[in-house]
Design a protein that fits this description.
two-stranded antiparallel sheet, two-stranded antiparallel ribbon, globular, 222 residues, single chain, alpha+beta
Length: 222
Amino acid sequence: LEDDRIVGLHRKAVQASLSALERFAETRVRKEGACTDRRTSNIVAALFEHDTSREQDPLLHTHAVIFNATWDNEEREWKALQPRAMFKALAYSDAVYNTEMTRELVRLGYDVHQVGKAWEITGVPREVIERFSKRRNHITKRLAEELGKPSNAGLDTHTLRNRIARDERKRKIRDADKKALVRKWRSELGANDGLVLARLHATARGRRPTLPKPDYAAALEW
């Protein structure tokens, strides 16, 4: 699905997500016997954008490295970041990203639908999604294997999945040949997959959809 506009949407959604998270930034206040936290609502972060997974599948994503520093406007100095409230707001920050991406994808002409906690572009064949999800599929397979071992009894699925993802990840390939990767990805597509994706792209380009009217009651109920 070659649509460079989606890269721009991703970058804007990342910025919106970080801006939402930034509002929860705090610093500790310990002067004159105080033992509280003060909301600063500012962070310093470096963003690193990648477009492949460790299995060299196409996977546009951004890593945000947040520095342990925030500006305390009352004390007029840089201080250590108190991230407790930010950790609590991570799910909210994720929701902001998903909202920005799904809304703007619809505005570009794509239909989207929810799959579990994720969102997918309607019309992309399930076989294509699975074929280019080698990293996730490996973790899912290994998780099933590890859950069957007596030594892992009592471990929750989330902890075990994270351990597998951390311990069994491949080293990142630096300076990969993007043209060679694109050729590889095209070779992995089925006979009709390329046509389906091209048609999906062309249809989106030709549409001028309007966003549905917000149903706040339904959103709150959900």
